[in-house]
Amino acid sequence: MSVKFGISPIAWSNDDMPELGGETSLETCLSEARKAGFSGVESGGKFPKNSKELIPILEKFKISLCSGWYGANLLKRSVKEEMENIRAQLDLFKNCKAPCIIFAEVTGSIQGNDKMPLSKRPQLNKDDWSNYCKKINEIGKRLEDEQMPLAYHHHMGTVIQSHEDTERLMQETNDSVKLTIDTGHMLFAGGDSLKIIKDFKEKIMHVHCKDMRKNVLEKSLKHDLSFRHAFLEGAFTVPGDGCIDYKPILNELKKNNYNGWLVVEAEQDPKKANPFKYAKIGYNYLRSKAKECGFLIIE
User: Fold this and answer.
1) In sequence order, which residues have a C-beta less than 8 Å from that of residue 274 and are 6 or more positions away?
2) What structural domains and CATH numbers belong to the chain?
């Protein structure tokens, strides 16, 4: 089985907080990502929204589009409305031959509210769960029919945050609803990425390798910080600079014949954490561990 290495542009420019890296060009991001060793990049706010513009830029830097975030409001939209809303991004990803679309429910999300502690995040009741799973099953099937798999992203501050949320979603949805496992978000939520990977090996479609600084994680949990406050404090970092041991995770992925992207994602203040420097740390660490686990590495 083989893996490829991608990175999120969030280290260079933060779409939710434009003041973080707002002056950094897309060209700088792509150039530095490639120089650090990555062959793929996820989409971001500075990316052109049509393939005629985006493909030549990606080709110039010899880098692939390896997916990207889509924030859904399926809890308050119909399937028809959500499909209409996702259409432009779906077509872009299809044209760029991305492997999947990262789908996350953001209805009621508090991830961008710097004054809202994570303990106040929204949660689904019994009827919500039933209705939501029916609708996401249909969305998943429609995306599957268009050869663009839905890879659900559990995320802090949203209705699908915890280990239990993620487990339930995977259990109550059909085979067309896949999973983006995010090691940082799962640790922050008190969950176990390794167990999720073991229990839902057929559903793992995409992997976000987000690491955490243990001291900031503990402070964030102790003081019930908001998601935004936590990351501004420096909760997140790249693999090799945090507290997560990726060897067992990569060993399990290899055992399960995972064949896809390992994506470094760590939102940090670029003035405090130089994006190129940290990109190299993440790439070198992950590449070394993946090689130790016996993965064929596609550069």
Assistant:
1) none
2) 2-298 (3.20.20.150)
